[in-house]
Structure formats: structure tokens, C-alpha cells
Amino acid sequence: MILLAANICFWIILVVVVVLQLKKYNSAIALLPQKSQHGVKNRHPALGINLRDYVPAANQPPGKPLLVMASMPTCASCHSQLEEVLEALETQSTVRFMVLLTEGEPGFESFLEKYQSVVPIITAPRQTMMNLYIFSFPTFIFLDDSGVIQDLRSSSLAAMHFIRSIGVE
Fold it and tell me: Which InterPro entries does this chain map to (predicted)?
């Protein structure tokens, strides 16, 4: 009789644990982008968000679009792609450019020393990057003149291609 009661308790506990784990996984799966249907590209969750709601320092003159490079101080690719964008944007004045740097990371101070005289740098905690669904670096964020995120790209080449495709350059 005791063995039967122990066996029943084991199965009840197992079912409860499985149900709790399924709820946890379902909530995590709900955060993933939905499956693309009919060849339509998935939407990044940050599209349509006003960046100034998350980073108040990300202001720009009215009527001027803004390209923001989200960067980590220790990201080697971020340094080289930052140089590429600065060179590409040297000759145009239509698009403003700034760097959104994750604060509190190793190399933060040296990144600021190296680039703050060259390009405007705004900082944000890692949690802000996560709230904007930015998990890889660099990420290039294209804002319209009111600060709303219009597009996100993962490379400087893709960002510059996007700028040319909308006729901003």
C-alpha cells in the first residue's frame, strides 16, 4: 500500500514539473519571431519603437534621419565597421551618425577615448540593448527624423545599402 501511494505521488509530482516546464518554454517561445509566411520577411520587434523612449540622448535635428551603430567596446568587428561607416558618410550631410555604446563593459573607457572626438557617442546599459532586442554587435539602427526605428542591419555594408536604397545619400 505504501509503495502504491509513493508511486502515485511520484507521478503527480512528475506531471506538475512537466506542466510548469511547458509553461516556461511556451512563454520563451512566444518571444521568438513568428515563422515567415508566404515569403514575407520577419519583422524585428524593435521596428516602430521610438529610440528616444529608451535612450533620451538619441536626439537629432528635425528633418534629418539618423543612423545609430549599437556597439560593444570589445567588439573587434564594431571598430572596423565604425571606421567604414565614418569613411562612407564623410562626403554626405543628409544622414547623421552616432554610436550607441553599451556602458559598463570592459574597454568602455578606451573606446570613448578613441572615438568620442570623431563621432557622437551615447551610452546605454546592457538591459536597454536587451529591451531593444539587440543581441549581436554591431547592429545598425536607422531612425526616421522623429526618432522611430525604421530598419536594423547587422553590417555596415547592409546599412549603407539601405541608405542608398531609400535615396537618402
Answer: Thioredoxin-like_sf
| Rounded Cα–Cα distance for residues 11 and 14 (Å) | 5
**How far is Cα 169 from Cα 93, in angstroms, rounded to an integer?**
8
Name the helix (H) or strand (E) containing 128. helix 126-131
Look at residues 117, 107, 116 and name the one whose alpha carbon lies nearest to residue 137.
107
pTM metric for this prediction: 0.70
CA-to-CA distance for 165 and 5, rounded, in angstroms?
69
**d(C-alpha 157, C-alpha 55), whole Å:** 25
3-state percent helix, strand, coil for the chain, nearest multiple of 5: 40, 15, 40
Q: Which amino acid is at 30?
A: A
The CATH class that applies to domain 51-165 reads: alpha beta
pLDDT given at position 114: 92
Q: Taken in order 154, 45, 32, 130, is the CA torsion positive or negative? A: positive
**Grid coordinates belonging to 115:** 572615438
Provide the grid cell at 19. Answer: 506542466
